[in-house]
Give the backbone structure.
Amino acid sequence: MASGARKGKGRAKSGNTGRRAAAKPNKPTKRAGAKGRTSAPPAKYLPTRLTAKRAVLPMHDAAGPLGWIQTTLEECYGQTSSRDMAAPAVAIPAAKRRPNGTTALAKAASTVWQNVLLTYKRRKAATPRGRAALSGRPAAMVPGARNWLPLGPSVVLDGQTVGGQPVAGRVAQLAIAPGGTVIYAVSANGGVFRSEDGATTWRPLMDSFDVDPTSFASASLACGAVAIDPADPQRVYVGTGEADTLQMFRFRVINALPAYRGVGMIRSDDGGASWIGETSAPDLAGEACFALAVDPRDRENVVAATTNGLYRRVPQAGGGFHWLRLHTGVHSSVVVAASGNARRFFCARWGGGDSPALVCHSDDGGATWLAIGTGFPAAGAGRIALGVQAGKPERVYAFVAKEGTGVAHGLYRLDSGGGGWKKVSDLPDVLPVDNGTSQGDYDLAIAVDPLDADLVYLGGSYADVNPYPASIWRCAIGASGTAYKVKRATSIGTHAHSDVHALAHTPGEPDELWCTSDGGVFLNRAPRGGGQFASQNDGLACLCCNFIAQHPTDPAILFTGMQDNGTARTAGGPTWTHVMGGDGGYCVVNWADPDQILVYANGVVYRSTTGGTTHSGWKSVWNFGWATMTQPIVGLPYDPANPGAAKLVAVGAGQIIFISENFAGSWPMRIEIQGVANVGDIFALAFASPTRLFIGTTTGRVFRADRAGAAWSVARLDDAAAGRLDLNGQINDIAVDWTDKTLASVYVVFGGMGDPRRVWRFDGAKWASRSGTAPDRHLLDVEHNALAVDRAAPGNIYVGADIGVWHSPDNGLNWTPLENGLPDAPVFDLQIHPTQRLLRAATYGRGVYEITLD
């Protein structure tokens, strides 16, 4: 694949080494580009060399996850439409708009994801392989057919924590059975995992959802909440859709389809071996779930805090249960406590707009709710996390973040089930503030010691120590006049990964405190004393992979860049090793000298000359200013007859492409695409030869750059007079059509939504849609992320989408899903191994997969 920035979720605070300020930009020089003009590009996009004995990660954006993901989401889910249609009304405030003029986002009903995925599964069922899967065997693997095989990472060693703990991908919550042996973990986009040995090992539970391809109970592997019946851990409830990212989606302004929301509530009665979808009113398709609370007196009675309100599971006419909304507004937390015959539910509404923050309680199983306590600090309050002791319904804590900034608003306590809320003063720095903002809208967790109501654990974003691990604090609380204060605060999270999403004790066990974060699951077996968190991530294969790179002759050696988990390497097997920090993006292997590796993270390109096997091998660092989350960096296609070509690489930054002829040793050449209206940012790059480079942007503009001597001339292609590219939207990938020996033809693929014409081909003179010719052979109207053209059989094209990998054997005229063995996780990158007949896919939530092409 040769494309540009991809979606990511997490924070801007990750890294495996300390912070470093960006060096002063180089002085602008004459560009070698179209018409030979001299131009001074924005200083922040000039390559600045950072020198150190060991590569370090500069922190360009201190605004938390919203600081860098907001505009990426705006681009990825912008409205795609015919150029003949009137431009949509401006919906993004000027202060939040990209300089390229991005305007409105696609408007869609909340059920659009569910409907598209249902179509996808019906299409799979119509194929011979899909029908074979209906025999009762899990459709994840079809005997006798070509199947996708997982390559890992099942875990990444030497992760971004103090002590180099093994890490997994982003995990939202855990459900822990009494005794701590059976545990369920719900991941951001890898589904549900189960452990039967106290989290020593894990196995996925949602990869075989396609037993009935017409069922959309498993429509999304994005999960936000999980709860079990404590008396029978085989009964599992899961709220699909990851809610921790809610605030990121809010900044998309209008009703665009959120990235990787769920399809409502699902239930298992057999420990996750099979799943049952449960209906909801209003429909929770397209929404997300923060928390679930199971009534300790009645396991059929469950309450859910969701992005669409507070829901309760109730009996329905004719038998069975469904979920009914009780209150509107975003509800960010729900907990339950019981003592004797009494049990009390508590819920919290996220404050903002016409819905001030509110904490309510119910003493009748969730049928009726009343505000609880007086003096709750609703003004300025945003997200709220609630904490209780399981056997103490008379006391509740509320950990509150400020609306709009994510900064800590405070910790509040209510005693005796009524009276007034009291603030707990002297709170530690759980949510560090950068430029007036923090991450309380993304990272907010609380747990109360099971035996001591005055001992509370708080989780937030990061601890201000190298390499910025988890912020988890043990707080001993005591009286202070008529209120409370933290008498002693101790940081205990540095051996866990940053961005804490949940804290939970094993039921009744004060010496087993669990943490979920952007790096998976961690356990502290002595949180009251000097215990440290330890990784519990073996087999928790939910890494969010952005891009991959391959050794040219040894197919076992792979690199992948991952959200908030840096870059990892494997020499074979499912266990990978962390080799570089930050939010990992592109990786490039020099195919003529595989000891030379380039990786991208947080606006910077790093180089290793020792095969990228360890952290210490990355020493050359170039800062490109972080124009997009993962700026495109690409090299030449494999050509062993021309080894010198392997040193040629290009990086896109804003409207500028920098060219190196010595594998990032220096960047003497520059191509600019400024001067075109609404040109956007460079988002996709693909070399056709050492003298020809194709370029795609965030606004649907396509260019070809041709080299003569040391100069590059630029020609615009999307407005070709013989037939223009009739689609506005973001170009997520670009690939050369190798059937054209003149190297004038190219394919592009669009992100966004609003038009099913996802793939287009330029034949050197005009554009034509190559997205299918019949409804049952057409691509879906969903985000498409990656393209791969088989050079050995160039009529074969592969595309990776947010739903599935698709194959066309006839240059894009007809498409069918290539699904056997591939989980329903988004596919961000596709690459064909240069010397083996293997297609590799990077999934956002389930790691890397491969399938043979012969």
Observations:
- Helices lie at 65-76, 112-125, 128-133, 246-250.
- The first strand starts at residue 19 and ends at 20.
- The chain has a mean pLDDT of 84.
